[in-house]
Recover the amino acids of this structure.
């Protein structure tokens, strides 16, 4: 079962110009999808922890929906009539990376990760930190609704300078489902174009 993952509440805006941008994701997928079975109707399944924050889960479902439907699935009229259930999870973790001989600030102590409750400091030398980077992961689990059997599991990981909830997560879901339903080499690097920002 896909472990429920938390995610960062606020998305940072992606600035940009009229140039092509890509998200490179490392994807791992595991398939037990029957070879003669077509993609059919789906409904999202929310775990109890996900039901407690419906607005966050709705944003995640909105990010994944285009990739799920591009894989051939259609939304069911009701969850009771769906052929498969789809569980989603995402994790966006901010981390600070060292900048040798750079001027910057750091939060907390140890491994350059954000530690709530610690103060902000600055310095010159090896202990200073540069820009915040984000480690991002999305996961999709597709189950047969008739017997609960897991049919397809996939996850994608990437990192970058934005949390990317609005733009990057949809691209990561697209990468995660790109090879559905075929098994493929794990892990593999998949690049997905982002919309051009003007």
């Amino acid at each position: 079962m896909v472990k429920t993952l938390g995610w960062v509440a606020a998305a940072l805006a992606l600035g940009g110009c009229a140039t092509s941008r890509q998200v490179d994701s490392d994807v791992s997928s595991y398939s037990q999808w029957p070879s003669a079975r077509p993609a059919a109707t789906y409904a999202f399944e929310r775990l109890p922890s996900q039901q407690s924050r419906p607005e966050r889960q709705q944003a995640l479902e909105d990010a994944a929906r285009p990739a799920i439907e591009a894989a051939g699935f259609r939304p069911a009229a009701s969850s009771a009539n769906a052929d498969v259930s789809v569980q989603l999870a995402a994790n966006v973790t901010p981390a600070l990376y060292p900048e040798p001989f750079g001027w910057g600030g750091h939060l907390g102590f140890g491994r350059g990760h954000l530690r709530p409750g610690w103060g902000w400091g600055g310095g010159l030398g090896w202990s200073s930190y540069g820009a915040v980077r984000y480690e991002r992961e999305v996961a999709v689990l597709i189950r047969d609704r008739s017997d609960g059997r897991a049919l397809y599991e996939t996850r994608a990981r990437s990192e970058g300078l934005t949390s990317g909830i609005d733009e990057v997560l949809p691209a990561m879901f697209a990468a995660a489902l790109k090879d559905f339903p075929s098994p493929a080499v794990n892990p593999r690097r998949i690049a997905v174009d982002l919309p051009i920002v003007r």
Q: What stands out?
A: The longest strand covers residues 129-144. Confidence is low (pLDDT under 50) at residues 1-18, 101-128. Helices lie at 48-51, 54-70, 168-176. Residues 54-70 form the longest helix (17 residues).
